C-alpha cells in the first residue's frame, strides 16, 4: 500500500500537454517514414559491406601467396649464388649446392602444403597420374608405374599437377602358329 501526501495534488493519468493526440493516419505516416529511414540505412550498410568484402578479396588475391613467396626467397638466393660460383667451382661442389637448394625448396613446399607425388612401383591411378607411354615389363604386374618422367604435386590434398609416368602392360601373348593358317 502506498502512502500519499494529502498536500500534493493527485497525479493524473494523462500528461499535461497542449498538443492534440496524433491521428491514426499521422501515426502510420510517422512509422512509414521510420521504416523507410531504417530501410535506407540497411541498404547503405549492405553496400558498404559489399565494398569492404570486395577489397578484402582483392587483397587476398594479390597477397595470398606472400608467405609462400617469402619461403622461396632463400631458394632464389641459393640459385643466384650457384650461378655466380659456377665458373670457378668443381662439379661436386655444384651438385652439393643444388641438393641444398632443392632441400630449401622442398621445405618451402612443405610449409605451403605442397606434397610431391613419386608413384614409382605403385599401381597406376588415372586420378593422380598421366600415362605418357606404356611398356612391356616382364616380372612387373600390369598397370604398375615403371618410370616417372615428371613428378606430380598435391596442394593440401588436391591435385596440382599429375605425375607423368610410363606404365607397365601385359606382355603380348605368344603368337599361336595355328591361327596363321
CATH superfamily of the domain at 114-173: Head domain of nucleotide exchange factor GrpE
Give, in order, the helices and strands: HHHEEEEEE
Distance between termini? 125 Å
Write the CATH fold name of the domain at 114-173. Answer: Nucleotide Exchange Factor Grpe, Chain A, domain 2
Total beta strand runs: 6
Largest sheet: 3 strands, antiparallel
Q: Strand-residue fraction? A: 15-25%
Give the averaged pLDDT, no decimals.
84
Structural class, from helix and strand content? alpha+beta
Poorly predicted tracts of residues: none
Tally of contiguous helical segments: 3
CATH class of the domain at 114-173: Mainly Beta
Cα Rg:
39 Å
What is the architecture of the domain at 114-173 at the second tier of CATH?
Roll
Q: What helical percentage do the residues reach?
A: 40-55%
Task: Please explain how this structure is put together.
The longest helix has 40 residues, at 24-63. The chain has a domain at 114-173: Head domain of nucleotide exchange factor GrpE (Nucleotide Exchange Factor Grpe, Chain A, domain 2, Roll). Helix 2 (66-85) runs antiparallel to helix 3. The protein has helices spanning 24-63, 66-85, 91-112, and strands at 114-117, 129-136, 145-150, 152-155, 158-161, 163-169. Strand 4 (152-155) and strand 5 (158-161) form a beta hairpin. It has 181 residues and is α+β, with helices and mostly antiparallel strands. The chain is elongated and about 115 Å long. The model has no long low-confidence stretch (mean pLDDT 84). It has a three-stranded antiparallel sheet with strand order 1-4-5. Strands 2-6-3 form a three-stranded mixed sheet, with no helix packed on it.
Amino acid at each position: 500500500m502506498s502512502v500519499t501526501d494529502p498536500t500534493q495534488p493527485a497525479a493524473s493519468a494523462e500528461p499535461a500537454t497542449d498538443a492534440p493526440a496524433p491521428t491514426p493516419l499521422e501515426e502510420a505516416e510517422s512509422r512509414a517514414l521510420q521504416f523507410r529511414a531504417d530501410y535506407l540505412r540497411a541498404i547503405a550498410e549492405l553496400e558498404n559491406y559489399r565494398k569492404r568484402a570486395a577489397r578484402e578479396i582483392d587483397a587476398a588475391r594479390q597477397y595470398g601467396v606472400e608467405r609462400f613467396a617469402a619461403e622461396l626467397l632463400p631458394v632464389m638466393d641459393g640459385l643466384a649464388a650457384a650461378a655466380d660460383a659456377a665458373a670457378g667451382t668443381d662439379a661436386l661442389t655444384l651438385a652439393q649446392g643444388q641438393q641444398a637448394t632443392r632441400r630449401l625448396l622442398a621445405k618451402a613446399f612443405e610449409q605451403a602444403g605442397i606434397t610431391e607425388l613419386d608413384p614409382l612401383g605403385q599401381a597406376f591411378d588415372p586420378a593422380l597420374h598421366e600415362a605418357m607411354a606404356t611398356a612391356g615389363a616382364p616380372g612387373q604386374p600390369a598397370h604398375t608405374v615403371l618410370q616417372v618422367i615428371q613428378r606430380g604435386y598435391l596442394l593440401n590434398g588436391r591435385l596440382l599437377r599429375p605425375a607423368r609416368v610410363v606404365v607397365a602392360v601385359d606382355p603380348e601373348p605368344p603368337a599361336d602358329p595355328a591361327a596363321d593358317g
